[in-house]
Each structure stands twice: as structure tokens, then as C-alpha cells.
Write a sequence for this structure.
């Protein structure tokens, strides 16, 4: 049995920085790490986009995570809230409901 990565995805846009520490990358990392540990998710890896808008999907951290998902390395994706994954709620829903399940189930066959 392989020990797939639990992807912990963090994103902070320039606008989010104005809202204070609660959305900071440091805070998101702590929340995600604690959640993963408390719920038995192991082999965690952070994928981070700092200062990048969630309205674009051309984010280096997101693309790196997707490359690892496509390579069969990731079994779970965790993020603080859906807005961290993306601000286009239809596309975010497509990733959550269609793309991630297809990619991760096809890889584990």
C-alpha cells in the first residue's frame, strides 16, 4: 500500500492581506496541519500560493498540486475553506465534485 500525500492547500491574495492575520498563510498552515493530525491524515505536503488571486487558476502552488494529483501522488486535498481553493465557485465546485474524484479514483485503480 502506498502512502499517498495529503495535500494541504493555502492561498492568500493581496486583498486577503488587508483583512489581517486570520487569513495569513501561517494561520492557514497551522489550521490545516492541526486538522490533518487530529483526523489521522498522514504524509502531508503544503501547496501554497501567497499573494495570488483566487480568480485565476494559473497559480504555481495550485499547478504543482494538480501535477502531483495527475501523477497519482495525492489521495486527499484539504483547504481552510472553499474560497482558498478558488473564487470562481462554479469552477471550484467542478474541481471538488468532478475533477478531483475522477483523478484520484482513476489513479488508485
Amino acid at each position: 500500500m502506498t502512502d499517498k500525500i495529503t495535500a494541504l492547500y493555502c492561498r492568500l491574495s493581496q486583498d486577503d492581506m488587508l483583512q489581517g492575520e486570520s487569513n495569513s498563510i501561517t494561520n492557514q498552515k497551522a489550521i490545516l496541519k492541526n486538522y490533518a493530525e487530529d483526523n489521522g491524515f498522514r504524509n502531508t505536503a503544503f501547496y501554497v500560493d501567497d499573494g495570488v488571486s483566487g480568480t485565476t487558476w494559473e497559480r504555481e502552488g495550485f499547478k504543482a498540486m494538480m501535477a502531483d494529483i495527475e501523477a497519482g501522488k495525492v489521495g486527499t486535498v484539504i483547504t481552510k475553506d472553499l474560497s482558498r481553493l478558488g473564487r470562481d465557485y462554479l469552477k471550484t465546485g467542478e474541481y471538488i465534485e468532478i475533477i478531483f474524484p475522477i483523478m484520484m479514483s482513476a489513479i488508485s485503480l
